[in-house]
Amino acid sequence: GIQSLKASGLALLLAVSFISLSCCAPQRLFERRNWTPQAILYLKGTQGRQFISEENQRKDLYNRLQLAKEINLDQSRFLEDNLLNWRK
């Protein structure tokens, strides 16, 4: 019926658009690029900054965990001292 006609038309439209777009795509899968030294340095710089930011995030997380441990230890010491002094 009408739905099968619509489905066929849609499939035909998709096939035609896929074929027309594949003509414009690069023919070789891995096209060799001429990277200029400036482009390579730029790419290395962006990766370096990303690595540094990840390291900073790890350090911040580690510092927060250490601070939380110290606070917990201080609280437990405070409670122990209060309980021991309360008995006296």
TrEMBL record:
It holds the Pfam family Spexin. Transmembrane segments: none annotated. GO terms for cellular component: cytoplasm; extracellular space. InterPro entries: Spexin. The keyword Signal applies. Residues 1-24 form the signal peptide. The keyword tRNA processing does not apply. Coiled coil: none annotated. It is found in: Secreted. Keywords: Hormone, Secreted, Signal. GO terms for molecular function: neuropeptide hormone activity. It comes from the Eukaryota. One of its GO terms (biological process) is positive regulation of gastro-intestinal system smooth muscle contraction. Its main location: secreted. Belongs to the spexin family. This is Spexin hormone. It comes from Vombatus ursinus (Common wombat).
